[in-house]
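Hello, quick one for you while I still have it in my head. Could you read through the record and tell me how the tokens relate to the sequence? No rush at all, and the record is pasted right below.
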Amino acid sequence: MIAAAIDEDAAWTAVLKRDRRFDGRFVTGVLSTGIYCRPSCAARHPLRANVRFFADGAAARDAGLRACKRCSPDDVGRDERAVLQAIEAIKQAGQPLALAGLAADAGYSLAHFQRLFTRATGLSPAAYARALRDDRARNALTASTSVTDAIYDAGFSTSSRFYDSTTGKLGMAASAWVNGGQDVTIHWATVETSLGSMLVAATDKGVCRLSFAEGEEALVQRFPKATLVRGGEAFEALLADVIASVEAPGDFSHIPIDVKGTAFQEACWEALRRIPAGETRSYSQIAAAAGKPSAVRAAGSANGANNVAVLIPCHRVIRSDGSMGGYAYGLEIKRKLLEKERR
């Protein structure tokens, strides 16, 4: 039986694009050949009239179809379990594990497992382990009054390894995570745009805050011990670039940003940055792209925790039923941004 929750137009679009992000969400049944496939199957596309969509392989088999030998759609569940098993092993170990061991435990070749893991999480197993360790460092720095204690609590063997690992990632000096931005200079400005008043603030590493209808008071609350400087020569050039990108949204990857979150939040934000201008994704798609297909609510929370509007385009996320969903700065701004990108 066809699953009522499947949006058939969206499913067919995914099939035409061979979109791997939909693998595991449904299977494509081809009535003329009697087989069912992954959405990403590389085989020649069937006629739309011959296609039915099923929630999973079991539903397709109940309808009398057999699995495609080319794309092995029933292996999607196995792939997901293998990645989740590896993630759990990495978390338990608290450090990078040998790729050979992870692949062997999953029953895959090294190259195939590396592709599976990277496709699911956006990171290699080693990079994922490092991201988890960095995440522990952030949490420890927030909770601890001693930077030294936090470094060792996070699993770093020496302080030098911690600073080597976090240079360019944590953005601020390590102590700033405890001391509210102490010794950090943030340049900022508010400007009028077609979307209303916009606040832009940046450290020397990139934009750390982009929001609407906020001012200096909001920055003080976020960075109570930082040195706030209005404007600045180098900042003005960055500000002009940001304004141009907001007024004509597109690819923002050239604009540096300085944001921090948990490993999962950062994976969600990276997934948001990969959405092409003019397109949208659902919360479940973002969760899947971040490596946790079941963490749909957490993906929504990560969306809401985004401190850099537009440049991390959380406005490109809508509900699975096609409705707009929420937006921190109001649905009118979200609609305008999407309209700009679709032109």
